[in-house]
Design goal:
The structure is a homodimer. By secondary structure, the first copy, chain A, is mostly helical. Chain A is 64% helix and 0% strand. The radius of gyration of chain A is 18 Å and the shape is elongated. Chain A binds a DNA duplex through helix 3.
DNA sequence: CGGTGATATGAGTGGACCTCATGTTAAGCC
DNA sequence: GGCTTAACATGAGGTCCACTCATATCACCG
């Protein structure tokens, strides 16, 4: 499983106490996101709520965006873990079942995981930072393409489970599918607090119609 | 045509001079977005570049987000105007042509319109502001669903041009299509400065496959 | 137990957003 | 034209936030 500290933390927490502190800060970040939204979220309040001095906050997180990026990464891990578990237990007969499970799991997390309604794991909010077109030395755009990680994982899982044909076309198709699904589901949750059921249904149709083109066998 | 001042401005510029100032501020906002990105954009610098005192800036725009929202609205107007023109001139035989034109126009604007690469007209950046779930009196979430306006307009245009069957199902389908297309095209431009051609092609396939389900005739 | 490097802390610095008291212009009226 | 009144313009300054860094504390080991 990926780790939250992959490229997002300044220092990896070594001792037990530090690990717990980082975890608490992420918990409070998620809680405060639900409470006040992204713009009004302050690093000071996150630190205070977690019972951690502000200096320590900056020992681990480079800035506010790094904090949110780390939360997105943790959400990604949780999502993949839950999805893997369900794909393993429930018997999957074809890829449409996998799509349904993924959508179900995403919706469930939107409803129950703190902060997930505001920050899931897709494109991290307002363009990572700094000049977006100038220099090419953005080495930390890892989080930018979390959806690529999801696509990768879905590919591995589905190939495992039903021996789909691999190839660069499939990779791209899965990335596109994840990106589109993420957008439509976000819309569903902007419209309706629990996710507009009609829009969720349309999301499934969208993904199925598209993937049916790329996975002709079935 | 919609107007930039629809719900986003504090005061509507009445005199000629004021209109020009607002326009200049939006121009500079777009230019600076390309130059430094969203996070590093400052109201002071926008005002300074536009040759306008900071106090005047706040006469018209409620805050930084309002500025960006107004730019998104202006982009929306421009997009719809250009699309309408091209849909009118070029002969459209079926709806797939309309989809292609819309995608083409979006891509063209991503490449040439200042700031459009950073802020097009979709969901306006980090959740409009304030508590997102609490009160229901957010009266200015107009900009939140700019894509709904696009969908509306596309519906009107296509119905006009080829007499498609209207209905709530079609409305929702178009909104979903626009939302998904927006997401995939944004991905295409995050990946590649001029827009990854393969991803743009996939965007067309995605929309066609989905809409083919909803527009069974033809 | 002294030394050495890692870790912890929070007052302080710079800077961004936004206001508001004051100055300036325009408009109506006799 | 003079006078009154209201709309508009301005930028110094208040407030708050992100982030730093000098100092303190701890962990480990010879």
């Amino acid at each position: 499983m990926t780790n939250v500290s992959a490229g997002t933390l300044r220092r990896r927490p070594a001792q037990r106490r530090s690990v717990e502190r980082v975890e608490r800060m992420l918990d409070e970040c998620a809680r405060l996101l639900d409470e006040v939204g992204y713009e009004a979220l302050t690093t000071k309040e996150v630190a205070r709520s977690a019972g951690v001095p502000i200096g320590t906050f900056y020992q681990f997180f480079p800035d506010k965006q790094g904090l949110v990026r780390a939360l997105a990464l943790r959400n990604l891990d949780a999502f993949l873990a839950r999805l893997t578990a369900r794909l393993g237990s429930a018997g999957i007969s074809d890829w449409t079942d996998a799509v349904d499970l993924a959508v179900d799991e995403f919706v469930a997390m939107k409803r129950t995981t703190p902060g997930f309604a505001i920050v899931d794991f897709g494109e991290v909010l307002p363009t990572p930072e700094g000049p977006p077109l100038k220099g090419t030395n953005r080495l930390l755009d890892a989080a930018l393409e979390n959806n690529v990680i999801v696509a990768d994982r879905l590919r591995a899982l589905t190939i495992d489970l039903l021996g789909a044909p691999t190839g660069p076309g499939l990779d791209r198709a899965l990335i596109v599918a994840v990106e589109a699904a993420d957008a439509v589901l976000k819309l569903a949750f902007r419209t309706h607090p629990d996710g507009d059921p009609d829009l969720i249904a349309e999301c499934r149709r969208l993904i199925r119609a598209y993937l049916a083109d790329h996975l002709p066998e079935l």
